[in-house]
Amino acid sequence: MFIADFKDFRNIYLIEELFRWKQKWAEKNGKKGNFFSSGYREFLFRLLKDEAGTGKFNLFVLALDGRPIAVNLVAVERDTIHGIQAAFDEAYGKFTPGSLLLEHIVKWAFDSRRDFDFGAGGGKYKTVWAGESCYSSTDFRISTSNWGKLAFVLSDVRRWYRARRFGLVHKGKETQAYRLRSELEP
User: Where is the BioF2-like acetyltransferase domain positioned along the sequence (predicted)?
Assistant: First the structure.
């Protein structure tokens, strides 16, 4: 296991692997979302290269014979490690490389006296790790300025437009077959 150094441009391919593996998983499981957009991909590249931010982002890599077989993107804060996105080469799926890598990352977090936050979503692996300490939460987003209010309005207009554009509104109501938010969004 190692942490990719993105000062070395040769490691950029690891992000491509993350997207490729996640895309295969999404297609296999019928998932869709903004995660696969070129804009989000560029955002991740910049995030991993940025050293000026207040936090830090690491891409952990599990390799076999020098070849990556699992990657896990995390946000590192002073007291907490936040899981962001993970993927693995399905050719090695029966060996659970994602779980093996996650075990190393959680150990790394605890060894550095940090908590590990699995993040939003209901992945089965989370309950295995969390045991009885698993709980649901609700995310409230509150505007504290006129700019924030404008952002919420624009977000709602965008969702409304997408629903209309893809024929997901019937007699003024959204169909239950499609959620306006991505299945990959928290």
Answer: 15-126
